[in-house]
From TrEMBL:
<feature type="transmembrane region" description="Helical">
    <location>
        <begin position="265"/>
        <end position="283"/>
    </location>
</feature>
<feature type="transmembrane region" description="Helical">
    <location>
        <begin position="37"/>
        <end position="57"/>
    </location>
</feature>
<feature type="transmembrane region" description="Helical">
    <location>
        <begin position="186"/>
        <end position="204"/>
    </location>
</feature>
<keyword id="KW-1133">Transmembrane helix</keyword>
<dbReference type="Pfam" id="PF13520">
    <property type="entry name" value="AA_permease_2"/>
</dbReference>
<dbReference type="GO" id="GO:0016020">
    <property type="term" value="C:membrane"/>
</dbReference>
<dbReference type="InterPro" id="IPR050598">
    <property type="entry name" value="AminoAcid_Transporter"/>
</dbReference>
<feature type="transmembrane region" description="Helical">
    <location>
        <begin position="110"/>
        <end position="128"/>
    </location>
</feature>
<feature type="transmembrane region" description="Helical">
    <location>
        <begin position="69"/>
        <end position="90"/>
    </location>
</feature>
<protein>
    <recommendedName>
        <fullName>Solute carrier family 7 member 8</fullName>
    </recommendedName>
</protein>
<feature type="region of interest" description="Disordered">
    <location>
        <begin position="1"/>
        <end position="27"/>
    </location>
</feature>
<feature type="transmembrane region" description="Helical">
    <location>
        <begin position="295"/>
        <end position="316"/>
    </location>
</feature>
<dbReference type="GO" id="GO:0015179">
    <property type="term" value="F:L-amino acid transmembrane transporter activity"/>
</dbReference>
<feature type="transmembrane region" description="Helical">
    <location>
        <begin position="160"/>
        <end position="180"/>
    </location>
</feature>
<keyword id="KW-0472">Membrane</keyword>
<dbReference type="InterPro" id="IPR002293">
    <property type="entry name" value="AA/rel_permease1"/>
</dbReference>
<keyword id="KW-0812">Transmembrane</keyword>
Amino acid sequence: MEKGARHRNNTEKNYPGGSESQEADSGGGGVALKKEIGLVSACAIIVGNIIGSGIFVSPKGVLENAGSVGLALIIWIVTGVITAVGALCYAELGVTIPKSGGDYSYVKDIFGGLAGFLRLWIAVLVIYPTNQAVIALTFSNYVLQPLFPTCFPPESGLRLLAALCLLLLTWVNCSSVRWATRVQDIFTAGKLLALGLIIIMGVVQICKDFWRETLGGHGLDHAHFCRPVYIWRSQWVPLHLLPCISTLLMLVTSDIYTLINYVGFINYLFYGVTVAGQIVLRWKKPDINRPIKVSLLFPIIYLLFWAFLLVFSLWSEPVVCGIGLAIMVTGVPVYFLGIYWQHKPRCFNKFIELLTLVSQKMCVVVYPKEAEDLKMK
């Protein structure tokens, strides 16, 4: 399927409003995204990815389930140390395999196409939509809670406001990259301000000996609802619609902690697989250039903690974890039918080409021209 509608250098027509590269600069062909993201916006994207909604939601749940402030603090310290260990492992993988794609690129290069496809499959169908649903529900909860001071907001209201938030942000992303970057910048600044207020208020309450009340209250997550903004897409890209629709489906429940457990298990599963790939890569390619090289003790410690959390999650939430695993397994036949099976019948290939061509014409899209200098040599 190297020809026809699937060709990546398809420059059949330039559409107004799209994000196109200047053909004079690219040597006479190809459509690519404009470089419209500046330094501030790029930093805002990084901050938005690092500071998730968990810091605003999790402290209350951790304290409630831990039963004491001391145990909650120990849990936060231990998980912080383990996260730092995992970050060091990812740092080595990032400079050893300098490709865009994160976990997908690492898993695909180390374990093969099936593992990489399953990572991408579960990310598109479960991880990204669930993360966005958690953020949208948290935003709607903190917006509606002041209107219901003596009770919890109605579930229908929470879902409706969350859905409206998602639809609005999807429209912003599909309309203009510049608008999306401005929204990202504004709410990233608001997020940092909210974190600062939480820290300052916490210190003040500690001084007043109201520690328990401080941690038992709500966080300030109103600044974080813009997390679903994918500003690296161009205009007229229908791929905005897939995460939006998938996220709307996740709103069948308004229980934030159920969604967190749901996505946490699957996400952490592939974190462990990626870190295990670091050990495998050390064995398969011991002489590869590694600008950053950490001790093997770090991935081993991380994997031991990873295995404990997976077993505990399966024991405590078997249904939630089982649903995530079932969705992941559905990607296996898709991979073998769509990618691994090379010698497909001609009628099958013609149907896929026709379907792709019709989709491209309806959505006004083509494949972007790949930048050669970004490919791994």
